[in-house]
Amino acid sequence: MNILVTAVEVGSVRAILPVCLELIRGGDNLIIEKKGHFLIESVEELALSLVDLPENDIDLKKFISDNKINIVLFSVNVHDSRPLQIARVADILNIKTIHILDYWNGYRARMELDGLTMFVPSAYLVPDNFALQKAIEEGIPSQIIKVAGQPALADVDVSYIEASKGIDPFLDRRKNKNVILFVLEPVANDQGSSYEENANYRGYTEKDVLIMLIKALRISEEQFSVILVPHPRQNIDEIKDFWQASGGKPFGEVYTERKGQLLLPFVSGVIGMASTLLFEAWLVGKSVLSIQPGASNNPLEMLLNQDGFSLIDKHVNSEEIIVKWLSNYSDISEQKMNAEIETYNGSTQKIISVIKNLQ
């Protein structure tokens, strides 16, 4: 089978990448658009599949026809509508299209990211039943939605155990302090800093949340070392400068030597906004605090009322709530993985089954 794959942004690429690898190993011919985060991941096994695609619709049609594409596998995120453009062209040619959703938000918005009417793919794959219901509520036709898990979250238990066998990177800096991981996101860049700037403004930015955290750390009597992990699309120097200028330096530092997933076994808790890594941390049993003051909707809504997950969605008393959370951290040695983790194991195979059944 000839499969054309297109995804640009980091979350989309990480969700679709395991599927690409499995398809190639199974003997399928993949053509992956050489764009975006696929270039950053630099997976050797995919090197021969990465191809520059034509930019305009007319040449895209010819490319898809000449290469006898059977299926387009795509994932749209928050900024780049290129995967949606390619899916629309394929649909005109009566070629099956499969969309992989990497996260619990923007179910319909992703299919309208190019400003056109909602695109309806042949199959719309979501991580779980919560996402299924939300997608239906937003107008995605129920008959095309399939629960297939999220490949980037598949086998997170195995990955966690493997990572825990490594050397603790924070051992020499603990000094009786507990390490807290803070997961950064480019919120202002993605959704703006006000409703005037962007209609999709979250109600806060990453800088707002960092300032809240620093204020709470000043108040807290607990001893913590905070490790800030930047998002791949963020400017590291700018983050370091802001952290220091805002008074965060005494409490921790920006850390870029390992991916956040590899640090989970060595931290007592995880703080962030709405990153997928917060959900992954919760799955492996870490105490998680999501700070989203003023948010109109919560992408981590599926974790509300779950043990081990706390949410701040208002500005009022936010620092005091953070302080209270810090005083109730879970010790590293007492982590228990959540049963929900089984929902995502086997995600890659579920998606491949959908692909094969659409032939």
Q: What does the average pLDDT come to?
A: 92
End-to-end Cα distance? 8 Å
Task: Note the overall shape.
Answer: globular
Order of helices and strands: EHEHEHEHEEHEHEHHEHEHEHEEHH
The CATH topology of the largest domain: Rossmann fold
Residues in helices, as a percent range: 25-40%
Spatial arrangement of strands, main beta sheet: 3-2-1-4-5-6-7
Number of domain units: 2
User: In the CATH hierarchy, what is the class of the largest domain?
Assistant: Alpha Beta
The low-confidence runs, each spanning 5 or more residues with pLDDT under 50, are none
Strand content: 15-25%
What are the SSEs and their pairings?
Elements: E1 2-7, H1 10-25, E2 29-33, H2 37-41, E3 50-51, H3 57-66, E4 71-75, H4 82-92, E5 96-100, E6 123-126, H5 129-137, E7 145-147, H6 156-164, E8 178-183, H7 187-191, H8 206-219, E9 224-229, H9 236-245, E10 252-254, H10 260-263, E11 269-272, H11 276-283, E12 287-291, E13 309-312, H12 318-326, H13 347-357
Parallel strand pairs: 1-2, 1-4, 2-3, 4-5, 5-6, 6-7, 8-9, 8-11, 9-10, 11-12, 12-13
Helix pairs in contact: 1-13, 3-4, 8-12
